[in-house]
């Protein structure tokens, strides 16, 4: 019987066979949200009436025999950084509280065109700046595996919604690991597509040369189905790649890695990685070898500089992008009592509207771009970015895909790193190089760490516009893991009733 525990692919099949209606399936998920989200705080806005209206429209089209997309009628959660016409879009910030966009982002428009039912908008670190969702102006999201731990970030709300079976699919954004890291910490699949493969039009910008929209789901196939639904060229996005979308669904179904060369990145293993994380990665490598893949070790020596370079490039672009929030055009406006000038109102608004992490990054970015420091900091960081890309080029000359852990550890406690920005930034040490080079990457759940019973994620990376490669490897490894375990890592919803 189809219910919230089914895969999105199975839900789609049941809907197509008219074994269940989209209204019924949507209501099941809305009921689940109402039941558990008070503990998780995955959603910032739940569009009950709108979701049921969308579902009813799909049911009518199906009843009339209209041709529908593969995911028509399946529910989804959308990160609150993508504009959706008439629906609150805050980017997790007080400065955008109450803003209702007059238009849809391209990704939201594609979801609507595909008949995917949008349940609501999910929580996130403010302006996508964070690795734990603790920087949201609307409260922290909890990890469904352990409510005392973070689900990662910045797309923690989307990841938690999928892991808690509040939605079978979700949309996130990834600037330095913000899809892959929360996917790893919550035991689901998350993909950062090649930069430019999915339109950024209508996405509130953090770092324009790094931001990328991508899918979350509980299986590789479900993630691929959503990937194909949202990808494609968009003339409204100047960074959009005008090329065919890789056949990721077919790749996810192939379940064959015979003859593929898989590169293990020397610099992203060993010291600094939790023992339980390393153990699950080693077991995954053994399964890939058993499936016929050849393992080669590759070296990417410039990766050690990627974290520092990223935290110059991203804040620099953020300081420029966030200058638009000036209290004059839209969003929050503070201190406009007639006694203050425009600059005073702008200053008061930005002081009240931005959280401490956003202010930290604006200050850092403004400093890096200032006269006398541009070449020393921002310019040097861009040179490191070129070296990181060269490392990937050299590695892909030896291997079809590259693998590493997604994160050094499993999910950390809420509050554990919130007062230590450097420790928080180190959570993204394995994911940031992918964004710096503009390539694509997947986080695949590969088991639970022995120390704490929490999920571990394997990162699979592929060259630009070769995203089908990591779906092929991910689908094959997922099948091998399922055969070994006997059931998925998330075969049913975590029992939140036993968690305080």
Which key phrases capture this entry?
alpha/beta; Amidase signature (AS) enzymes; eleven-stranded mixed sheet; 16 helices; 12% strand; globular
What does this structure look like?
- This protein is an alpha/beta fold.
- The protein has one domain (8-303, 385-490): Amidase signature (AS) domain (Amidase signature (AS) enzymes), CATH 3.90.1300.10.
- It contains 16 helices and eleven strands.
- The protein has helices at 8-16, 22-40, 48-63, 106-113, 156-163, 180-186, 220-230, 248-254, 275-290, 306-321, 342-353, 356-369, 375-396, 421-425, 432-437, 467-485, and strands at residues 43-46, 75-79, 117-122, 169-173, 189-192, 213-217, 261-265, 294-298, 401-405, 440-448, 455-462.
- It has an eleven-stranded mixed β-sheet, with helices on both faces.
- Helix 10 (306-321) packs across helix 12 (356-369) and helix 10 (306-321) crosses helix 13 (375-396).
- The protein is globular and about 70 Å long.
- The mean pLDDT is 95.
> Would you identify the CATH architecture?
Alpha-Beta Complex
Q: Kindly, what is the distance between the CA atoms of the first and last residues, rounded to a whole number of angstroms?
A: 31 Å
Mean pLDDT: 95
Number of strands: 11
Helical/strand content category:
alpha/beta
Q: Which H/E pattern describes the elements? A: HHEHEHEHEHEEHHEHEHHHHEHHEEH
Query: Would you state the CATH class?
Result: Alpha Beta
**For the report, how would you describe the main beta sheet?**
11 strands, mixed
User: How are the strands ordered across the major sheet?
Assistant: 1-3-2-4-6-5-10-11-9-7-8
Helix content: 25-40%
> What is the count of DSSP helices, taking H or I runs of 4+ residues?
16
């Amino acid at each position: 019987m189809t219910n919230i525990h089914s895969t999105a692919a199975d839900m789609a099949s049941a809907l197509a066979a008219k074994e269940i209606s989209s209204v019924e399936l949507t209501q099941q998920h809305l009921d689940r949200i109402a039941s558990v989200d008070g503990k998780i705080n995955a959603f910032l806005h739940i569009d009950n009436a709108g979701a049921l209206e969308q579902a009813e429209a799909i049911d009518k089209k199906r009843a009339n025999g209209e041709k529908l997309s593969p995911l028509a009628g399946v529910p989804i959660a959308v990160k609150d950084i993508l504009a959706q016409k008439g629906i609150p879009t805050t980017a997790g910030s007080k400065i955008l509280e109450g803003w209702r966009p007059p238009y849809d982002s391209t990704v939201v428009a594609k979801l609507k065109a595909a008949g995917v039912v949008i349940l609501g908008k999910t929580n996130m670190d403010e302006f996508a700046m964070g690795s734990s969702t603790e920087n949201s102006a609307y409260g922290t999201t909890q990890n469904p595996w352990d409510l005392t731990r973070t689900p990662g970030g910045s797309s923690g709300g989307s990841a938690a919604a999928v892991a808690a079976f509040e939605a079978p699919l979700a949309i996130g954004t990834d600037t330095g690991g913000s899809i892959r890291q929360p996917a790893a910490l919550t035991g689901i699949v998350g993909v950062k597509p090649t930069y430019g493969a999915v339109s950024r039009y209508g996405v509130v910008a953090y770092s324009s040369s790094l931001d990328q929209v991508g899918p979350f789901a509980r299986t590789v196939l479900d993630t691929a189905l959503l990937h194909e639904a949202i990808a494609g060229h968009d003339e409204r996005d100047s960074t959009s790649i005008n090329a065919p979308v890789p056949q990721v669904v077919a790749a996810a179904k192939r379940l064959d890695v015979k003859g593929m060369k898989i590169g293990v990145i020397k610099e992203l293993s060993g010291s600094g990685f939790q023992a339980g994380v390393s153990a699950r990665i080693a077991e995954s490598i053994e399964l890939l070898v058993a499936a016929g893949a050849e393992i080669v070790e590759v070296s990417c020596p410039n990766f050690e500089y990627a974290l520092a370079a990223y935290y110059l490039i991203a804040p620099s672009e953020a300081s420029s992008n966030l200058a638009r929030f000036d209290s004059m055009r839209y969003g929050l406006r503070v201190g406009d009592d007639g006694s203050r000038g425009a600059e005073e109102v702008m200053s008061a608004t930005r002081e009240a509207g931005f959280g401490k992490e956003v202010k930290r990054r604006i200050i850092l970015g403004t400093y890096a771009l200032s006269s006398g420091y541009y070449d020393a900091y921002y310019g040097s960081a861009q040179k490191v970015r070129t070296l990181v890309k060269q490392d990937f080029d050299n590695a892909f000359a030896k291997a079809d895909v590259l693998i590493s852990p997604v994160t050094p550890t499993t999910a950390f406690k809420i509050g554990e790193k919130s007062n230590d920005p450097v420790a928080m930034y180190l959570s993204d040490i394995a994911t940031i190089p992918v964004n710096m080079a503009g390539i694509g990457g997947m986080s695949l759940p590969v088991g639970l760490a022995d120390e704490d019973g929490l999920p571990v994620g394997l990162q699979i990376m592929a060259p630009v516009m070769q995203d089908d490669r990591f779906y092929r490897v991910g689908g094959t490894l997922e099948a091998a893991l399922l055969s070994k375990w006997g059931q998925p890592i998330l075969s049913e919803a975590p029992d939140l009733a036993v968690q305080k």
